[in-house]
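FIELD: query
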Amino acid sequence: MSKPRIAIVGAGLGGIAAALLLRQEGFDSVLYEQAPAFARLGAGIHVGPNVMKVMRRIGLEPAMEAMGSHPDAWISRNWDDAAVLSRIPFGDYARRTYGASYLTVHRGDFHKLLADTVPAGGIRYDKRLIGLEERDRDVLLRFEDGTSVEADIVIGADGVNSVMREHMLGTELPRYTGYVGHRAVFPASALAKYDFSFDQCVKWWSEDRHMMVYYVTERQDEYYYVTGVPQAEWDMSKAWVQSSQEEMYEAFAGYHPMVQSLIDACSDITKWPLLERDPLPLWSRGRMVMLGDACHPMKPHMAQGAAMAIEDAAMLARCFKAVGAEDYETAFALYRANRIERASRVQKVSHDNTWLRTNEDPAWVFGYDVFEVPLVEPVRAAA
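FIELD: result
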């Protein structure tokens, strides 16, 4: 199986990164995405130095540098008086200390850059996976449109509601955390009327809720906020719903006038449930393996969810190179052994929502280089 047929379920950031990194190691793949087409969704994303090192390997670091905003620092502020709780330096400090830049970008722009790098025909849209059949020599994937494909190896990068995870571990809804996130992207020019100097990257904290705010373009012409707000219940049949300024004013009553101005500046607001799962007992079975939110979904409070998926993709490609596609089970075991501790730690810190609230050292996250860390061997079962 020197040239295995690799199917990747899900063309999000982690899935596309896996396709591009596998291609660099000589393994071709096809991405199967349930969405009918690409869309620039209204969300921002942090791209830390740990991710930029992967973009460097793919060859997209210069394009990312030109696309994103380069904040000088992550600033944490107290909710009512704007007192600075922490200031974590980025900019030139990040390049010197962690080996790459720290960016904030529009998630859709980042996604499009990756997707446009995939060779023609490498992404098949409107392919909603509905079934998997494990056979002696391959796996049969069945899609909602009535088509099917055969693959030697299947990578599940299909998110928190992964069909791959469900097939491997049974049906179980992700756990609603009791928190929602409001999202809004709006022109930075809408802030010109307010007499404030808005931070490039800031998180506003109170005891039970927060608002993260940053620019998403190099020109700093688009501003973004995302929140974490307690809400007792969520209809799990809905991926997201519309929110409103009125709801935001109520959620952030008493917050500093700078936060009130952010709410006033934008009326197009969506609301999303924050979901997670307990660490899974397995990440692979037979010819199937998972990455990203499919196997370790987490709250977004470290801004490292997509980063963990992209790191997973890089480590999986590295393990295929080290072991070879013929011995995929050993490659999968090596992959999990070299990702489980880090992913679980990030999952826990994200759950606790303490990241960078105080002046801590983030080097264990940002200084990590997935291509350079020594590989650890999987623990072998006793004979």
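FIELD: remark
Residues 60 and 113 are 8 Å apart (CA to CA).
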